[in-house]
Design a protein that fits this description.
This protein is an all-alpha fold. The chain is built from 15 helices and no strands. It has one domain.
């Protein structure tokens, strides 16, 4: 079993790496909402969520495969060449997907170009971050995410006040923040050494290895993209049935609550994931399972305390959120608990589906997520016209709960069999 002090130490580093970006994200939600208004903020949030969705599809398979196999594959001579090829494929996939989507929602050439550059930049940023995470170097993750979060707040504000005062300036600024950090860290000696290699070294076994990464990470990429599709679909249905200001208010509340978990729970997930994978790769399966159980216990304890605080200080918390989002009214108060619970359950699912990842049954994860996605789409399309935005919040909670239950049942059965 990994000493708890090591896990807690790495969790602390990842907490630092998420704290400043988390608070910068909170500040950006508040500032952007105030300076461009709820309606334009909804448009900005809609396109940004589309960028993240495309990155998840195009680059997610490579990042997940790197976390799963880095400790086993990085010693091969053609590993770096394979990574370059895989990253190139990811970039091409992402460009094609966005170009196809643009046929159905026409963009200006300027917005199309900014979007392509931003999508590739976000993909590169996530790749470098995953590389440091796989190497168990949380301190480098801190500097990478710290720089991006500061730039993602300062550059958009600068462009907004110096040039166009609309959501386009905010989007371009966020895209530039990812591009600059990718370039800065890409120029560092160790990262350049990791990328610059003789691609001609690619061997037959290297091609087989890329296929292995794709068939493992492909379903995970679909899973991650489907996970990001939930907030995207929420915004899509609200935009379809309800006023633009309602979309902005809902997006603001959801993102504020999501930032809370990115600061508090996600660092634990970041610390646990590579450790669990390394233990499993080293055939220390019972130690990996015990680490998963330890993480589950920590998360359950945390959410119990959080829900108690929410119950005791519900009005105070509502007043704080209202200060951040002035357009929020009393009728939106009931959105807080289901959205908060949904946010926690998706974080919790990173542990409930861990046995599926370890046993390389990632296609089952996709099946479970498609079931949840179906619940989300049906719930929104049927109930929004009657219940309004409350239907979206309740559906978000229900779909997250179903996924956690399905993956949790599988994991408990798998753990029991592994023990026997």
């Amino acid at each position: 079993m990994i000493p708890k002090r090591i896990l807690l130490k790495e969790t602390f580093f990842y907490t630092v790496s998420k704290t400043v970006p988390g608070f910068a994200g909170l500040a950006s939600v508040i500032l952007f909402m105030r300076i461009i208004g709820a309606e334009q903020y909804g448009q900005y949030s809609f396109l940004l969520s589309q960028w993240y969705l495309i990155v998840a599809i195009g680059f997610g398979w490579l990042n997940h495969a790197q976390l799963r196999y880095y400790s086993k594959d990085n010693t091969f001579d053609d590993y770096k060449a394979g990574q370059i090829r895989a990253f190139t494929y990811s970039g091409l996939i992402s460009m094609i997907i966005f170009s196809v989507l643009s046929l159905f929602q026409p963009h200006s050439i300027q917005l199309w170009g900014i979007s392509i550059i931003s999508i590739i930049s976000i993909g590169g940023f996530n790749y470098i971050k995953t590389f440091f995470q796989a190497k168990l170097e949380p301190k480098k993750v801190i500097w990478l995410t710290l720089g991006q979060s500061i730039l993602a707040l300062s550059i958009p504000l600068g462009l907004f006040f110096l040039f166009q005062k609309n959501s386009f300036s905010i989007l371009m600024g966020v895209g530039l923040s990812f591009l600059l950090m990718t370039i800065i860290f890409g120029l560092k000696k160790k990262v350049v050494k990791h990328f610059i290699t003789d691609v001609s070294k690619q061997t037959k076994t290297g091609k087989i290895r890329i296929k292995k990464w794709f068939f493992y990470g492909g379903p995970l990429s679909i899973w991650f993209a489907a996970g990001l599709a939930f907030p995207f679909l929420d915004r899509f249905f609200i935009n379809l049935y309800l006023p633009g200001e309602t979309l902005g208010v809902y997006a603001g509340i959801q993102e504020l609550l999501t930032r809370i978990f990115s600061i508090t729970i996600f660092p634990l997930t970041l610390a646990l994931h590579p450790r669990i994978m390394n233990l499993w790769n080293e055939s220390k399966k019972q130690e990996a399972i015990q680490t998963i159980k330890w993480g589950v216990g920590i998360m359950i304890g945390f959410v119990t305390i959080l829900l108690f605080i929410m119950w005791m200080f519900e009005n105070v918390i509502f007043d704080i959120i209202h200060l951040a989002i002035p357009q929020m009214s009393n009728q939106h108060k009931t959105l807080i608990i289901p959205l908060l619970s949904a946010g926690f359950l998706w974080q919790f699912s990173f542990l409930t589906h861990k046995m599926l990842e370890l046993k390389e049954k990632t296609h089952i994860m996709v099946v479970f997520l498609i079931i949840s996605l179906f619940i989300n789409m049906v719930g929104n399309s049927i109930y929004i016209p009657h219940l309004g935005v409350q239907a979206t919040a309740n559906t978000a909670f229900g779909s997250a709960l179903v996924y956690c239950i399905l993956t949790g049942i599988y994991s408990m059965i798998a753990m029991t069999k592994s023990k026997n």
